[in-house]
Write a structure and sequence with these properties.
Length: about 170
């Protein structure tokens, strides 16, 4: 029997690609797509309630407040969704003993590096979107354990989905 997997941000492009790959490579898993209408990641109680109802063993967070131009004008909303949202999901997952895989963005980097970025590179965001997403990764590294960070997706994904680093325990 496969895993119960909650896919948050289910109507986005990344979630679409993950659903297709998941169906092909792990059809035994029960993938439960959750849209913004079903879960408001900025609200701890919303995330906790839906996750307690479906009881996943893995939560994949692809949600983001990502309209880069709009984000610059709505910093409070960007921080609520992109930084506090992952925190809220991590706390809900901890209560369920579920693993959280959080997807970030290449916007956490400045783009000034001549070579491809690697997981050890420090973040260097140049806009509110990047700062808010980097904040979410930083918060997760504190909540989950100091050696973890969020995944950065910057290009084609390979299967199985392998985050740069993901929380596998809750110390």
């Amino acid at each position: 029997m496969g895993r119960r997997v909650a896919l948050i941000g289910a109507t986005g492009q990344l979630a679409y690609d993950l659903r297709c790959a998941w169906a092909e490579h792990a059809p035994e898993d029960q993938l439960i797509g959750l849209t913004h209408a079903e879960v408001e990641v900025a609200d701890l109680n919303s995330g906790r309630a839906i996750l307690e109802t479906i009881r996943p063993t893995l939560v994949v967070n692809t949600s983001a407040y990502h309209k880069v131009d709009v984000v610059e004008e709505n910093t409070d909303r960007a921080v609520a969704v992109n930084a506090m949202g992952p925190r809220n999901l991590a706390l809900a997952c901890r209560g369920l003993d579920a693993v959280l895989m959080h997807m970030s963005t290449d916007y956490v980097f400045s783009g000034r590096k001549a070579a491809p970025y690697v997981e050890a590179d420090p973040v260097d965001p140049v806009n509110v979107y990047g700062v808010s997403k980097a904040g979410g990764g930083s918060i997760l590294s504190v909540i989950c354990c100091p050696s973890t960070s969020s995944s950065v997706v910057a290009g084609p994904m390979e299967w199985p989905a392998r985050p740069v680093r993901a929380a596998t325990s809750w110390n």
